[in-house]
Design goal:
Chain lengths: 161, 161
DNA sequence: AATATATGAGACCTTATTAATCCTATTTAT
DNA sequence: ATAAATAGGATTAATAAGGTCTCATATATT
């Protein structure tokens, strides 16, 4: 798996829309500017997000994007996989046909497990949690926030290291 | 992070050498053939493995590669990161300088945690465990599971190629 | 010492993917 | 009707991956 720039932008876009709130219309220009995303690139990304049902796109004058779901109902995994497809850590998992021995390979199993673990982690994070303390925008641009700790967000998981 | 082909080949190579056993010399040709790795590509990969102290390379006639550590002491993480560098799931983590807001970004924290989790998972797997039941070679190609002794290898090297 | 064999190291090429941009069409508020 | 905004596909640019080639170097064998 590789988090592409498109995926990073998508996350930023969804974060911004989540801040605005479900159902609020925001112009592409504003999002692009505030979240530091190339405008044209954002247009393409938005199409994927719209296909996935995450946002609605309004054309025409006073057009823009609208968050269609409650931020709490949108997981990080959902947004990521909308952009890059189902996560898999290696080709052997993504295209088992290309691997002659995947069926009875111990390494294969490890990658499968690791992938599941990663997907579960990302699935446990939703955008309501993220906007509570996320500031993936320039400090000068984003609105004031209480500096809450993320530990509350990920506390259900075992702390690594 | 992206598991490149070079990393997959490196794992196969290390698996093969682990089967042979620590200290056993095996020719590059044999490994390449048995583990289905382009010979020249394997040469390049081996250099990285050697730099990391995982194998020793013998040049000259009857040259080849030798496993320098006990398979039980070699983790999957070690081999993977030798090939692709320290694992990180997105650029924001790998090159924080490029991300203007990484310090106080909740998403950033999630990626950090996910990365640590993944690295820990891969760190818990060693090559002794893997060879116990791994068969990442073609069933028809790979040899019996008992590791060869050095004498056996040297004396049976009369066959051409 | 000479020769054959095997790998070292890095340059080089080819292809694939990513990232971004451009242009024309379409939609919608006023 | 007009202006404002996005749609959607084509195109380009940059980067990285995967693999190959060549010459240099090391070593066993005779």
């Amino acid at each position: 798996m590789r988090l592409t720039r498109a995926a990073e932008y998508a996350i930023r876009c969804m974060l911004y829309l989540s801040r605005q709130g479900q159902g609020v219309l925001t112009s592409r220009q504003e999002i692009a500017q505030q979240a530091d995303i190339p405008t044209h690139f954002l247009a393409k990304i938005a199409q994927d997000l719209a296909k996935a049902g995450l946002i609605e796109i309004r054309q025409g004058a006073r057009g823009g994007f609208i968050l269609r779901k409650n931020p709490a109902a949108i997981t990080l995994l959902e947004v990521v996989e909308t952009m890059i497809g189902e996560i898999s850590l290696n080709d052997c998992i993504a295209r088992p046909a290309g691997c002659k021995v995947s069926y009875h390979c111990a390494v294969h199993r490890v990658w499968l497990d690791a992938r599941d673990q990663l997907r579960n982690t990302l699935r446990q994070v939703n955008f309501e949690q993220l906007i509570t303390d996320a500031s993936c925008f320039l400090p000068s641009l984003h609105m004031p926030l209480e500096p809450k700790r993320l530990e509350t967000i990920v506390s259900s998981r075992t702390d690594p290291q």
